Amino acid sequence: MSDRPNILYIITDQHRADWLGCAGHPVVKTPNIDKLAERGTRFTQFHVTTPVCMPNRGAIFTGRYPSVNGLRHNGLPLPADANTFVDILRDAGYRTAAIGKSHLQPFGHTPAVRTDEERVANDHFPEAKKCDGGKYTHEHPSNYETGEMFEFPKPYYGFDHVRMVTHHSDQCGGHYLQWLRSKSNNWASYRDRNNQLPHDYTVPQAYRMKTPEELYPTSYIKEEAKAYLAEQKDSEDPFFAFVSFPDPHHPFTPPGKYWDMYDPEDFDVDLPYEAHKNPPPQLARWKELMDQGEVPKNEQQSFMASTQQVKEAMALTAGMMTMIDDAVGEILESLEAAGKLDNTIIIFNSDHGDYMGAFNLLLKGPFAHDSVNRVPFIWVDPTQEGGKTADDLAASVDIAPTILERCGLTPYYGIQGRSFLNQIKGGEGARDFVLIEHEENKVYPGLDKRPNMRHLVTDTHRMTVYKDLDMGELYDREADPNETKNLWDCPESAAAKSSMMFTLSQAMLDAIERGPWPKHFA
């Protein structure tokens, strides 16, 4: 029997750090996740490495920055030759499972990567690197159109057991869709937004679907996780299980009782647009679009909403979150029933946040703010006391080296994150700053170019610089924790700006690729 710990990593999608009961939220009910905080260490200053789904997941699994690991923004795959911390665990004898949303490869209908021939034919130019597009089709919808369960190659970024869920909310695909078809002859009607139940919500993307709670994606992931944990009961090998919920990411579609579990009037919009004293161009443009009654046709594009609409989004998101919490409770019961609770590290995290009403914004986008940059992170370790908080900085890119250090395994050369295991043990953190790389794959309102930004977060300030744009942001996190006054052009903040620029230069130098290890001097 191995003396290495099992690891159960539970992750949500698009979840603000303060949207948990244990983080002080006055309305949202998350008793099971709160119990994890009571048993473990809750981080209060845990930041993403990029506030976008795919690239931050790539940073989590590789411990490397998006500019280095190749998954810089949504729509790109994590290169097939990338090493992940899951590969290292697997090589050390761990049984590995990914249940739910992976999103390490694109899951849209267009090809994830064009072959060199396709690229030249369509774009009239080749890429700097030759590419085999066939390596990146595993999350493509075509794999899940039949009743035969699609089998992933082993290992899939280190995972041997994969139960894939793609997309979000009522439109989830992957293995979930194959399962849904097998469970109900009415499956298509559950996904037909023209067939939704009546409701009086006006916030965009609120759909009251007829999907029963037991057939919603959260329930599928819960049941698959419970089954996998039950299989570990008699195994002497350690396991790593990545359980990934695509909620509470929009659209807002909590099923059954979770739809009206919360009253919009119980929520407050305490940081309205008017709170920002000198809004940057994209924020001002979003306000203009809202006043004109325009809503983005692309559901993935952030937008500004009325106070009532924000409250509605909050209530529905809270329902989705409490459904996840209920699922977490059942998963933990299964872990205990398998006899593995006392030797299992439990991690709770999210891939990025959500504006969720900050300056009346919803979703996420190319406007940096604490609401999207900071995420929940809880680490429960059987060898450590619980009920603690860690207040020093840490980041998504640090997760891989921390897990490997805790398991007594040597990381691969070129890993860039910094282990925060010392924080879990009650010591100081490993960081004075967090570098957030942020590259979008399309143009947004208020910005005339596709945004490519770098955010730097320290204990005292947050700074943002934009590629090819004559603008920047600087906020005093101590005096202005809600980031409402941009000090970029303030003469009295020149010294702080200069210091942050120097730190940013050092952070970006630190993020440069170090591999491969040289075998000769020349």
TrEMBL record:
- Matches recorded under Pfam families: Sulfatase
Please tell me one Gene Ontology term that the record gives under cellular component. cytoplasm
The domain of life for this entry's organism is Bacteria
Using the record's annotation, list all stretches that form the Sulfatase N-terminal domain: 5-408
List the InterPro entries.
Alkaline_phosphatase_core_sf, Sulfatase_N
Q: Which GO terms describe its molecular function?
A: metal ion binding; sulfuric ester hydrolase activity
This chain's protein is named Sulfatase-like hydrolase/transferase
